[in-house]
Design a protein that fits this description.
This protein is of the alpha/beta class. The chain contains 43 helices and 28 strands.
Length: about 1100
């Protein structure tokens, strides 16, 4: 049965109806369209049928509600405003053009519509009064009467692509075609009445529409270049030196610091935190204080409380800076080892919920999520704000300060940023950080298993992390940046600052003779080979029988392995440090092992984590006294116990005895060594090289060692040489010796106030020997020479050590650092020596210590090691930002005009005339969504590749005089290829990132336990609500260790009331009742906006 209705299904579309009417009724003379919504981009679909129609009229509705609202807002009565009607219609056409598909066919149709209007091929009117929702199309012949065929189509279809049923995506519509004369006559009369009252859209109104949309063909390559930079840099273009208020009298507003403040504050608002990673000496403390002051101004003085967390070494610096900025009364200061005071409600601190902004210095110390300091800091950072200020939201803002955040394993970066990001619901382009980092962590581990590092693969891993995670939340400028940016350079010059050049590491070689070389190799083999030392003394709880082990200790295997690993690490490091330090540790290890064997023989094996049994034995305590002490400790902590020999597994005592035999062998061998070639070389070169006045300007020397024993050993050796100017610093005397250090080694001492007190520099001490305790928080830059007596495997430590002397204020233009390096004579010895160091390197690698300063190859290839330059990276983006600022300052009106250039704008360029022939027949495109942006290069074979912002800047860069040329034929195809590439990657990301859900074993067990508990009727509504909140917090990854805490509780197998009681404690600890955390839905695939593009002919 035929029907007059159609729905755009099965090709029975409005477009097909038009095609039929025009094809079989060639006498159609009038085409009238009354539509509530009209898209110029849909016009080209029907344009082929209208070629021979002499009169085409389109009557469009506008948003009358908006005009009514504007009139009421102005206190005026609504009246027909023809100009406003035209404006709104033109605006709708502009919007339509901006939203249209980016293809040549659609574009040509839009241009055809504009030309038809200008040439008066069509008439368009907009009704200024009636809110038109009707969709009516009238097709009439001339003459029109009862005897001539005509049609009226009405229903739900607007004159758009989707309404017509064209293209891939079209609407389900409900339309009807009427051909009876009375129906067509009625529709025609209604149309004429509306047409009579409507406002003409004249050619003069439409002719400028091209210039106001991306179709404008007058935009120059240079203007497009400026538009691209402006879109990329966004708010950071605006240099606002007054945004953080007045600075203290003795501080100057330096542009590079102001930039960091404004950029950092934007990151705080968008991501709840950022990493301040400017290199050593650029004033991170001052920048953090400026951000804090700006935060106080924005959030309100009466609503803001700040916490600064720092290592003890830099306490004075933070307190003095905040005092100078007059923000210390809004701030509490705490050292990183005392965070539990805040959690315990100590009277000197506000409660953890009361802080709004938290600043964490030396943030890389919080990269291990299994430590207590990590847990304490995250609880403080992530607990909801109790007092909302003018800056909205329950989440605190966090600034992580570290000059070395990017030199760690992927794991370390992942955990550090969880101070302000949720692991599975982040604000970053990658919302599920867990699923993003997991494969990268695994890839990194796999890389480290090979002797030869795949540098390209490593770069690929860190490239992904840098782009998706680090760049959106990190501010890092190097000295290279400051010297390359004109505004920054002027700041430095105004202060008279000169940055010293850090020379490559210089090798200090000492020779191991055949005897030492063989012993060195043998020792490394014994320490690291799994068939040799078992470190059984440090795995005692794992040696207990399972039933006893489970009674007293959780995770015995893990804890034991951890302790054994620590001891193994210490021994390897001591061997690298000095033979003296190694001997001391080796003897202590042997003594502890022998004592445990003796305990077995006496059937009293002491395990006491709350005391040091060996120290008690050294003090002369007998077994009975020790047993009583352990019984006393066991009352508070049952982990302190005295066990019998039978409580241990078979084989444990054998492992102890095997260790004792190997240790005895090593101790005997090392006791025969009564000389130290490393020390001999050190003493010999002290005056000749290290204190040589040609390189050591002030005759000051800084010597670092990781071992306190080595430090004492060197000090004693220098004392025997008759030197009385040696200052020895360790953790014990660092604080008490602070003034002495400053007076003798700080080039910035004394400042003005200290001069007024008559204080001056001293030369009582010229050599300072220290452990890592002085690797941060102190200036030692009267010296320009650093000696690394033991090899700095850890890049963070190397940079921090050098940073003590590589500081603003030094008189020297060059920094020298010397690395001690063992060598051997003869092929066989060299091979042995090389093998030993490969084993040490393998050890560091296998157990996942921080990245080495030098790769395996570099360690073993002496030429590479000592010919490389110590070069800071450079952020080239800053050069373009400052170019843009300079252009804006000199051309404000032009810049404002360029900024208004519509999105999707494009231009053609001649690759030969700009001397870039490699770009011929290619296209560059800049795309973005709300969360991220990408640059693409599409080559002449239509292959699309992501490119970095700097690579894109170089392609788009143009001279003001450059003229545009026509677009290449494949331009639209290229741009759409880039869009498809973007969408494909987005699809992959969304597919891989399911709804926030913790899928790990620990989390699953925790959630299952909670799901069982919540079923019990004894729970209050508040307890049930808190359990539900805990599940959400686990799923989104709010707190790293929350799943483990719940899992540990379920493992204890407590009764119901005890379990509920413990759960209440967990809820309180994590401020669950204050939490408003909710699970977001799975990310949607966003269609990217085309910002700009250009092709090269």
């Amino acid at each position: 049965m035929s029907t007059k209705f159609f729905t755009n299904n099965a090709e029975n579309t409005l477009l097909k109806k038009f095609e039929g009417v025009f094809t079989y009724n060639p006498n159609i003379q009038y085409f009238d369209a009354l539509v509530g919504y009209f898209r110029a981009s849909g016009y080209f679909r029907i344009r082929p049928f209208l070629g021979k129609v002499p009169q085409i009229r389109i009557l469009v509705g506008i948003n009358v509600d908006k005009l009514l609202a504007e009139a009421q807002k102005s206190g005026l009565e609504f009246f027909k405003n023809h100009e406003k009607t035209k404006e709104q219609f033109i605006k709708k056409i502009q919007d339509d053009i901006e939203e249209a598909n980016y293809d040549r066919e659609t574009e040509n149709g839009i241009l055809q519509f504009i030309d038809d209007l200008i040439e008066k091929k069509i008439q368009v009117k907009a009704h200024p009064e009636k809110k038109i929702h009707a969709k009516v199309y009238i097709l009439r012949p001339e003459p029109f009467n009862e005897h001539t065929p005509a049609s009226v189509i009405t229903g739900s279809s607007n004159l758009t692509d989707a309404g017509l049923g064209a293209g891939f995506m079209f609407n389900y519509e409900f339309n009807v075609q009427l051909t009876e004369y009375p129906d067509v006559k009625f529709a025609t009369d209604e149309f004429e009445n509306l047409w009579k009252d409507a406002v003409d859209i004249l050619p003069v109104d439409i002719q400028n529409i091209k210039k106001k949309t991306y179709l404008n063909d007058e935009v120059s390559p240079f203007e497009l270049y400026i538009k691209m930079l402006a879109e990329y840099f966004g708010k950071n273009i605006d240099y606002d030196p007054d945004s953080m208020g007045d600075l203290p009298q003795n501080f100057k507003k330096l542009s590079y610091q102001v930039d960091a403040v404004n950029e950092g504050f934007n990151m705080l608002q968008k991501h709840n935190g950022f990493v301040l990673a400017d290199v050593v000496g650029l004033g991170k403390t001052v920048v953090a204080a400026m951000v804090a002051k700006k935060f106080i101004l924005q959030n309100g003085r009466d609503y803001t409380k700040i916490l600064v967390v720092f290592p003890p070494a830099v306490e004075k610096n933070w307190k003095n800076t905040f005092k100078d900025f007059k923000i210390d009364r809004y701030t509490k200061f705490i050292t990183n080892g005392r965070l539990e005071r805040i959690l315990e409600g100590h009277e000197d601190y506000w409660n953890k919920e009361e802080y709004d902004l938290i600043i964490v210095d030396e943030a890389h110390k919080y990269r291990n999520h299994k430590t207590g300091v990590f847990q304490n800091l995250q609880l403080i950072c992530k607990s909801p704000r109790a007092n909302k200020g003018l800056i909205d939201g329950l989440q605190k803002k966090v600034i992580l300060v570290s000059a070395t955040p990017l030199n760690n394993r992927p794991d370390d970066i992942f955990y550090q940023i969880q101070m302000f990001q949720d692991a599975r619901q982040s604000t970053l382009p990658i919302t599920n950080l867990t699923s993003f980092f997991s494969p990268l962590m695994e890839q990194y581990k796999n890389l480290k298993r090979f002797d030869e590092l795949d540098v390209n693969k490593l770069r690929e891993i860190y490239g992904k992390i840098r782009k998706n995670v680090i760049e959106p939340i990190t501010i890092r400028r190097t000295r290279t940046d400051l010297e390359n940016i004109q505004d920054y350079k002027a700041d430095i010059a105004a202060q008279g600052i000169i940055f010293p050049k850090v020379e490559p590491p210089k090798k200090v070689e000492y020779v191991l003779d055949e005897k030492l070389n063989e012993l060195f190799y043998k020792t490394v083999f014994y320490l690291t080979d799994t068939d040799k030392l078992k470190y059984a003394r440090y795995q005692a709880i794992a040696g207990l029988k399972p039933e006893i082990q489970n009674k007293y200790y959780e995770n015995a295997e893990t804890v034991s392995k951890s302790l054994a690993f620590i001891m193994k690490t210490q021994l390897v490091k001591r061997l690298e440090s000095s033979f003296f330090a190694f001997k001391m540790s080796l003897i202590a290890f042997k003594k502890a092992t022998d004592r445990m064997i003796a305990m077995f023989e006496n059937d009293k094996v002491f395990i006491a984590p709350d005391t040091d049994v060996n120290k008690l034995l050294d003090k002369g305590w007998n077994e009975d006294d020790i047993e009583k002490e352990i019984e006393r400790l066991a009352e508070e902590n049952p982990k302190n116990q005295t066990f019998k020999a039978d409580d241990f597994n078979e084989g444990f005592l054998e492992d102890l005895k095997k260790d004792a035999a190997l240790l005895k062998e090593l101790v005997t061998s090392w006791n025969k060594i009564d000389y130290d070639p490393k020390l001999d070389v050190f003493v010999d070169k002290l005056t000749k090289q290290f204190l040589n006045k040609k390189t050591n300007l002030e005759g000051k020397l800084v010597i670092f060692s990781e071992s306190k024993d080595t430090v004492d050993y060197l000090a004693k050796a220098l004392e025997q040489q008759g030197r009385k100017d040696v200052l020895v610093i360790s953790a014990k005397n660092r604080k008490s010796s602070y003034e002495t250090i400053v007076e003798n080694f700080d080039a910035n001492f004394p400042n003005e106030s200290e001069k007024e007190k008559g204080r001056e520099q001293k030369n009582d001490f010229n050599i300072i020997i220290t452990t890592e305790v002085l690797a941060e928080g102190v200036n030692l830059h009267r010296s320009n020479v650093v000696i690394h007596y033991d090899t700095p495997w850890n890049s963070t430590k190397l940079m921090q050590r050098i940073g003590r002397v590589n500081r603003i204020g030094t008189k020297s233009s060059r920094i020298f650092n010397y690395v001690f390096y063992p060598s051997a004579q003869g092929d066989s010895q060299i091979k042995l020596n090389k093998t030993a160091f490969m084993k040490i390197q393998a050890f560091h690698t296998a157990f996942g210590e921080d990245n080495q300063v030098f790769s395996t190859e570099e360690i073993l290839d002496e030429v590479k090691l000592f010919s490389g330059t110590y070069k800071e990276e450079e952020d080239e983006r800053l050069k373009y930002l400052h170019f843009l600022r300079d252009f804006k300052k000199k051309n404000k009106a032009w810049f404002d005009t360029i900024r208004k250039i519509p999105l999707k704008s494009r231009t053609g360029r001649n690759s030969d005339s700009i001397k870039k022939p490699e770009l011929k027949d290619g296209t560059a495109a800049f795309l973005k969504t709300d969360k991220k942006f990408e640059f693409y290069w599409v080559d002449n074979s239509n292959q699309s590749n992501e490119i970095t912002p700097v690579e894109a800047f170089r392609i788009f860069e143009a001279d003001q005089k450059e003229k545009r040329v026509d677009l290449i034929e494949s331009h639209h195809e290229h741009v759409n290829t880039a869009v498809e590439h973007f969408e494909t990657l987005e699809h992959q990301v969304v597919q891989s990132q399911s709804d926030p859900e913790a899928l790990g074993g620990v989390a699953q067990r925790a959630k299952k336990f909670l799901s069982e508990i919540i079923k019990h009727p004894v729970l209050t509504e508040k307890q049930k609500e808190n359990i539900q909140k805990i599940v959400v917090l686990i799923d989104i990854g709010k707190y790293t260790n929350l799943p483990s805490d719940v899992d540990r509780l379920q493992k204890r197998k407590l009764n119901l009331s005890s379990s509920i009681f413990e759960l209440d404690k967990i809820a309180k600890n994590y401020n669950v009742d204050m939490s408003d955390a909710q699970k977001g839905s799975k990310g949607k695939i966003e269609k990217p906006v085309i910002i700009i593009s250009e092709s090269f002919a």
